[in-house]
Amino acid sequence: MARLLQASCLLSLLLAGFLPQSRGQDKSKMDCHGGVSGTIYEYGALTIDGEEYIPFKQYIGKYVLFVNVASY
């Protein structure tokens, strides 16, 4: 089962490589929530161990894949 999951993740990443590059930040903007403003680059996140804050502005101009690892 784990190999199937790994294969599906790798296939998704491979297919994402065929997407055309965005011609600027405006194409990547999306309204997520009424109370949230700005871009993703104005935010950041704690590392999984909670010891370091990573500002997303350091990734401007780079491809970023966000993965929700929250447990239910």
Automatic annotation (TrEMBL):
This is Glutathione peroxidase 3. One of its GO terms (molecular function) is peroxidase activity. InterPro entries: Glutathione_peroxidase. Belongs to the glutathione peroxidase family. Keywords: Oxidoreductase, Peroxidase, Signal. GO terms for biological process: response to oxidative stress. Residues 1-24 form the signal peptide.
